[in-house]
Specification:
globular, alpha+beta, eight-stranded antiparallel beta sheet, 43% helix
């Protein structure tokens, strides 16, 4: 059974190998728009929060299940003083393997369509899976995770909207070189549009302005390096941040914990 934490804190641990991470948190932090490179399945334990994502504005309270897809832009703010939640983050490979097993080898697109689920029977399945994973219960945890995912999958997922070609080129330019310089003038030339058209269209496409998207992609690079054991200063520099303080502010604003705390949890 998951017990709500008693003070503002984040507890992070690898569970069941490097492709799964458990997070339990109590926080009054208002998260800026950001993304994760994993699938997230979670349970609100106490309090409530309001958030925006590509799937709309939602509110979640104690007992509600919450989900996030890889690359999905979202934010989050407490309703009231703070809220407590637990999450399991699963790599796309790990999730695909589970889904393939559930679907008898089918390789259908995998996307969670409901950002918040109330009174869902899978809430109990999440608690059972989370407890088994954090207790290191191996095969039991895998079984419970499979049951959890099976209870959440939709066999007719909503396809992502097609990206306008000129903005897709802008996004690809950043994705191909997230640590490089991407001034708006250059992106507008890539798009064949005005600065305003590029800014507005890119935000509609991704949920982030071009600059915010560059920062997010740089954070993805830095987090991957930290997970591999890189020093914080080296990760910040290699990811393209001008200085350590900018990296620290950007990381903390989006994830609610410092790079140092994240690095310590990855050891």
């Amino acid at each position: 059974m998951i017990t709500p934490m008693c003070k503002d804190s984040f507890a992070i641990s690898h569970v069941g190998g490097p492709e799964a991470t458990a997070v339990e948190a109590r926080s009054a932090h208002s998260f800026a728009r950001h993304t994760h490179d994993e699938y997230g399945i979670g349970l609100m334990l106490a309090g409530a929060q309001r958030s925006w994502s590509g799937r709309g504005f939602v509110e979640a309270g104690a007992g509600d299940l919450i989900t996030v897809n890889p690359g999905e832009v979202h934010d989050g703010a407490p309703i009231g003083e703070s809220r407590t939640w637990a999450m399991l983050y699963l790599s796309p490979g790990r999730m695909a393997a589970i889904a393939s097993d559930i679907r008898d080898g089918s390789q259908k697109d995998l996307e969670f369509t409901d950002p918040v689920m109330r009174n869902h029977p899978a809430a109990g399945q999440f608690a059972a899976a989370y407890t088994a994973f954090t207790a290191g219960e191996g095969e039991i945890a895998e079984e419970r995770l499979t049951l959890l995912v099976a209870g959440l999958l939709h066999d007719r997922p909503m396809p992502p909207p097609a990206a306008p070609p000129h903005l897709a080129h802008v996004k690809a330019r950043i994705d191909d070189d997230p640590t490089g310089g991407h001034p708006l003038d250059a992106l507008a030339r890539e798009a064949g549009a005005s600065r305003f058209q590029t800014l507005r269209g890119f935000a509609r496409l991704t949920g982030l302005t071009p600059h915010a998207y560059v920062v997010q992609r740089r954070l993805d690079v830095a987090r991957a390096m930290i997970r591999r054991g890189a020093a914080l200063a080296d990760a910040a520099s290699a990811a393209g941040f001008a200085d350590q303080s900018h990296f620290h502010r950007s990381f903390t604003r989006r994830y609610g914990l410092t790079p140092g705390t994240y690095a310590a949890a990855m050891r």
